[in-house]
Amino acid sequence: MVNLSAHTLDYEYPGPVRAVANVDLEVVGDELVCILGPNGSGKSTLLRMLAGVLPPQRGHVELNGRRLETFSPRERARAVALVPQSLSAVPAITLRNFVLGGRYGHLDRWRRSDAHGLGMVERALAAADMEGQGERLLTEISGGQRQRVMIARALAQEADVLLVDEPTNSLDPGHQLSIFELIADQVRTGHGVLVVTHDLNLASQFATRLVLMNQGSIQAQGNAEEVLRPEVLSPIYGDTLRFGQWPGADGGIRRPYALPWRR
Amino acid sequence: MLSVLLIALIATSAHIGSTGTDDTRTTLQGAMALVGLGEALPAAHQMIVELRIWRSLVAALVGAALALSGALLQGVFRNDLASPAILGLSSGAGLGASIAILVIGGYGPLTLVQSASGAAPFVVAGAAFAGSAAVTVLVVALATTGGRISVPSLLLVGIAINAVAAGLIAAIQSFATRDFEVARAMMVWSFGTLDDRQSLHALFASAAVLLPICVLPFVSVELDLFAGGEEDAQALGVDTQRVKILALLAAAFAAAMAVAVAGQIAFVGLVVPHLVRQLFGRGHRYLLPMSLLGGAVLLLGADVLQRHFLGANLPLQPGVVMSLLGGPFFLYLLVKNRSSIQAW
Question: Would the CB atoms of B238 and A104 count as touching at under 8 Å?
């Protein structure tokens, strides 16, 4: 079973702003870990270090016991997929070609994709509810659709670990749920998934473990009952949340929720 | 279709010249003699045909090299306005070449002059490459903040470096005006020339195209993935550092050798990839090779038209022709993209 782990990671931006401080974290196969925390708490920086695109200033990341920096870039991409919050530029290419980009780590030495790869692209588009839209341009779809296409690309990557940065930001409630359901499906097939999100309630509903970050370090972790509590969240978010319980998807077990609501 | 057009243009170009237009058989006979088949034409006539053939080849190869350089730069910098001339690569090469001409022309340390005199074309080409490579490193270094190349500062740095290089070239030229030969050699560089090109020039121009072509299989798919940003490409498994180095080296080499062979010819590197993108889309697997062909067709075509219509009465330099065509086109690009430029 896949195992991605962070060991005493540190990262400081010029300023100096200590974005990540002394973080140890592990995600294994069939686990859905949600990283929560206020803006600027270091969630995305941590995710980028785990994905191998930002070298840590101290500490290291291991994938199945081997240090991540010893992987070749393509080898790493076959094992770890990153879904960024947004792209720094949106290229005017078709959705199919964009998702095909996820296959880069699997291309042969002449950079050709095989039938399996091309099939994977179509399946990934369908899974992200974008079936039959492969010829549309990435520039002409809505922000929410783009978010789903980025997830489709990560699915096409067929990596063991998925790292997802705020995937439900510009989605309507229905699509928020379907994205998390899609992610949960990956977990059921043995993938390890780590999602950065602000949505405490989606985390409560889907995550196997919640990790709460503040000012670069991990403040609390555990299941939803352990983390979504006033005494854990109020010191970090202030007096902005109302708490309650709701029956979970399986009907029986009650799940906690926390609503943003001024008293 | 582009390749057919290119072959037709080379054939036409070999016909046209200031001494009048030859019939096909004469040109063909001269061309066959050049590659060692059949009997040569009378010496003077054979030379004229050979000069035209070299001119055609050099024009096509230089056009191809400049366009490829532009397409690579636009891919790496994810910006359709990047080109060897705008980023200062061409003027860097021009500066290197001017310094080399000055040194070879007798203004450098004596030992250098003596050792360089036999290999003057190589020294000038080498200096052009060094100038271009130095400018590439400088532009990228100055435009990078926090490991990310900022496009607006890239273009501004390019403008500044262009201005400095142009100033230095002008200073060197005015220093050398007393020496007619040296001054003339430098003037030729400023607007490019395809006159009196010989086999050696064609050889350099082939290198300008062939070496960068070797890089294409390692950067084409990768540059497509650069479109969403460098970090995104990295996450997908692209060795972004290697791709950037290969593509920038190839672009600098192509531009430098093109400038070393034919002087500074603006706008080919900017305009051709843009036109190719309109016709064949943004995928670098097509964009890069098609830019090669398109650049060859454009520069040779412009040269053929210019010689056909203006002929010996008004022998415009290729750089002048391209500026007259490319300048308005660049303005058109700027006006058309005004809204997205403001959003940078």
Answer: yes
